[in-house]
Amino acid sequence: MGSMSVGTDVLNPVILTDAIQGVFSQQDAFFGSLAVSMGLVEVNGSFDVNDPTRIGNQITVPNFGTIGDFNQNNDGNSVTFNKGASQTGDTGTISRDSLGIEISRWYRMNGVGDPYGETARQIMVSATRAMGAATMTAATTPGAPTRNVYSATNPVMVTPDLITDAITQFWGDEVDNAGGGIIAHSKSVAYLANLKTADGAYLLKQPDQPNMPFMLNGRPLIRSDRGLISGTTMGSVTSTGTTPPVLTVSGTPTGVFSLRVQAVLGGAIGTWKLQFSTDGGNTWSATLPSAASVPLTDTQVDSVVGTNGNTGLTLGIAAGTANTDNVWTSLPNLQVTTLVVAKGALAFWYNRAALQVLELPNIAADSVQRAIHLYRVALRRRRAPGMSKPGVIAIKHNVTAIV
Asked: What pLDDT, on a 0 to 100 scale, did the predictor assign at position 295?
């Protein structure tokens, strides 16, 4: 069970449901991201899932097929008839993202502000994050045309020329039909921001105002860290202090981490305790017990370590006695993806009508459990609208290391 709100009163679920649906009725407000405002993601809130047992099933998200090209038709020959613009589609899997809230019967709002509006706002923000995660997962799924220049020994950085070459290779003369933009990791953007022309002008144009994209070679660029370091691993672990046990790190990091582990209580494995940091020792996790395998997940409420307490990493600890002067460090081997996305190449369909507050009493704790479910399908279209080519290009490359 997670955390529980306590007090002396409970929010009215009918009012809360109305507030939530009022927020979600405005799709632009729901998807307050540049990717949607630029048209990279097709959004449809009328997706209807009345039967929860359909979760995991594949459905077809509609798209229009092509009618073909004109062919030379010499005198004396008849035309070959093709089908009209038939409605085809791309298949996607129905998934569900959920948010649960538990409130005791003593919970009471203090009367300051609008609890219903604030709750709806926070649910909207959380749902937007879920939408972004699902869409980026679809965008980065293997199968898109990929230019891989990553090298573990001779780093190759992303440049405007590399992006242009990849676009030319995979889109050719259809590039003018693609529109769209670039999605790049913040580390890639930081590198691009330092590139200049021969006369000293920056290649990456800063946004003219907030909530506007960068511009690179006349193409809008969005900064996002979601799913763009999927090929990254953590490097070897180095240690200091008195006879430190051997530690190894496995898994794919959820961020660009400068990992640091320290022993805060000495002893044999199972007795000694540790804390970990993902920013080189500035902020620390809660204290965790040692074991042969320790998931690096911070148990603190509202954690600022990793990505909301998650790292995607697991610590392997060999037998031995740890001491409180033991410190272990590891830096990532960064492999980063930059995406070039045509307009409408991604689709996100969700069921706005199903965004209702479901309520059930918990008799064991004398509380009320409330849950909100987001039924959705996120996918990368097989080809971009108006093009004969796939609408997402992936470029895998290095970025500057962290030290």
From this structure: 97
